């Protein structure tokens, strides 16, 4: 479940939880002061702005540790794109059919984990921070609650570099797996979601649902296949994770999402409709997800949600009633990264 999967890293009881007007003012103020940017890459030294909700051009990662594609969706996204000439899409088809009630954002990854001796117990996914967190009194109670929600969660919240991570196969909501060399049937018409991935990788039938989202297809046992809850419970046992070998030629597609975290509006939406500003998520503390080995020696990929001060961006003329912003060059990043190619039927 990890921090972001539960309440967006909320270890601090909101002082404004029962004061919706104060909470709303805080959220509006933060929205006015910051602009959301999402970066992804194979490690911290090679993060690039990813085009959120841009289905046809997922970010490709090709390293000795991981080969695959990363796609990020955010419900109602109006942040920064890699090319300011491309406004954020009005909405991703991923959130159609009321799916936004289940997911306010999504991190989808399709690819191969490269390495020898990897098991399901070695590959961790979760939140990592670069500086100590200001933990409040009684934070141990919240840690106990999170471990009850995710029994595989590994917490290290009191160190100088805190983290909250779980084994990948026991924490993601949807997971599909198929052996390398096995491909599904050729499809002339594929959903716009994952257009490029479906055309290039030809995943086995059942790995994606009819809407193009990652489905639960994990034929470890007939009783586990297509049942994410049973798969997650199965991998709660360390012995099961250690027996599952992660081979370089095998393909994994998974989707991690949260119905609580609204990164676009920088707040947490609780099940009882209480809305509060996201703790620890500001210009100095990004919300970072990493997939790495348990010992931290190898990183497979990173997705980082960042709040950029609005003063470091400049608005551009709107396009089809959609706002656009440009990031001011600060000397350490190009103002415009390689723009996504225009859509064609072959894309």
UniProtKB/TrEMBL annotation:
First and last residue of the signal peptide: none
Domain Domain of unknown function at the cortex: 36-307
Domain of life: Eukaryota
Lineage: Eukaryota, Fungi, Fungi incertae sedis, Zoopagomycota, Kickxellomycotina
Name recorded for this polypeptide: Domain of unknown function at the cortex 1 domain-containing protein
Species of origin: Coemansia erecta
Compositional bias (Basic and acidic residues): 326-337
Region (Disordered): 316-347
Pfam families assigned to the protein according to its UniProt record, in alphabetical order: Duc1 (PF08588)
PANTHER family: UPF0590 PROTEIN C409.17C
Biased amino acid composition, Pro residues: 338-347
């Amino acid at each position: 479940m990890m921090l972001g999967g539960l309440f967006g890293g909320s270890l601090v009881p909101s002082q404004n939880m029962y004061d919706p007007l104060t909470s709303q003012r805080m959220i509006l103020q933060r929205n006015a002061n910051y602009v959301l940017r999402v970066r992804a890459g194979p490690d911290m030294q090679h993060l690039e702005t990813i085009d959120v909700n841009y289905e046809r051009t997922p970010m490709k990662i090709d390293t000795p540790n991981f080969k695959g594609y990363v796609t990020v969706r955010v419900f109602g996204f109006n942040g920064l794109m890699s090319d300011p000439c491309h406004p954020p899409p009005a909405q991703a088809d991923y959130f159609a059919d009321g799916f936004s009630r289940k997911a306010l954002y999504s991190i989808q990854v399709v690819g191969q984990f490269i390495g020898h001796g990897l098991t399901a117990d070695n590959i961790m996914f979760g939140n990592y921070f670069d500086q100590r967190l200001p933990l409040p009194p009684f934070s141990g109670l919240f840690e106990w609650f999170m471990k009850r929600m995710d029994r595989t969660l590994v917490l290290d919240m009191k160190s100088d570099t805190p983290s909250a991570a779980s084994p990948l196969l026991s924490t993601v909501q949807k997971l599909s797996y198929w052996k390398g060399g096995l491909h599904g049937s050729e499809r002339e018409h594929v959903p716009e979601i994952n257009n490029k991935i479906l055309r290039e990788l030809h995943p086995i039938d059942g790995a994606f649902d009819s809407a193009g989202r990652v489905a639960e297809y994990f034929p470890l046992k007939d009783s586990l296949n297509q049942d994410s809850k049973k798969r997650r419970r199965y991998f709660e046992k360390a012995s099961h994770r250690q027996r599952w070998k992660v081979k370089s030629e095998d393909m994994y597609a998974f989707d991690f999402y949260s119905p609580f975290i609204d990164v676009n509006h920088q707040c947490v939406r609780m099940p009882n409709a209480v809305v509060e500003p996201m703790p620890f998520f500001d210009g100095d503390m990004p919300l970072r997800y990493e997939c790495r080995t348990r010992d931290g020696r190898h990183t497979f990929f990173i997705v980082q949600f960042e709040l950029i001060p609005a003063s470091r961006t400049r608005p551009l003329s709107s396009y089809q009633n959609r706002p656009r912003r440009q990031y001011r060059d600060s000397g350490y990043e190009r103002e415009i990264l390689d723009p996504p190619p225009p859509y064609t039927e072959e894309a």
